[in-house]
Amino acid sequence: MEIARTLASEGVGVLTILHDLNLTMRFSDRVYIMKDGRVLCGGETREVLTTEAIEAAFGLRTKRIEVSDLEHPTICTIERLSGYHSETESHSN
Question: Which of 2, 9, 56, 75 is the most buried (most CB within 10 A)?
Fold first, then answer.
């Protein structure tokens, strides 16, 4: 990820697919959240990775923790919401 960040700072376009929201928060300038093959939202990472967007996309109740000593917020999962599933999950059963 450090190499990708260095390349981006040199003006090279970098596209990554991440499932770790904290890595995404740390290394991504822009993010798109997808669910069932569709883009739910996109934009600057800090604005897009909200607890509401994460809940809508992944069915996870989270808490976003801002610590003054850290450059980026940390996202902590509190619980998976009951009854949540994506189209992908329902087709695999």
Answer: 75
pLDDT by residue for the chain (93 residues), tens digit each? 889 989 999 999 999 999 999 999 999 999 999 999 999 999 999 999 999 999 999 999 999 999 888 889 999 999 998 876 665 555 555
55, part of any domain: yes
Entry field: residues in the chain: 93
Q: In the chain, what is the greatest distance between 2 CA atoms, to the nearest angstrom?
A: 45
Q: Encoding tokens for residue 4?
A: 């990708």
Separation CA 56–CA 45 (nearest Å): 16
Answer whether residue 36 is part of any domain: yes
Residue 35 lies in a domain: yes
Predicted TM-score of the model (pTM): 0.77
Instruction: State how many domains the chain has.
Output: 1
Residue at token pair 């917020």:
73
Contact 48/41 with Cβ under 8 angstroms?
yes
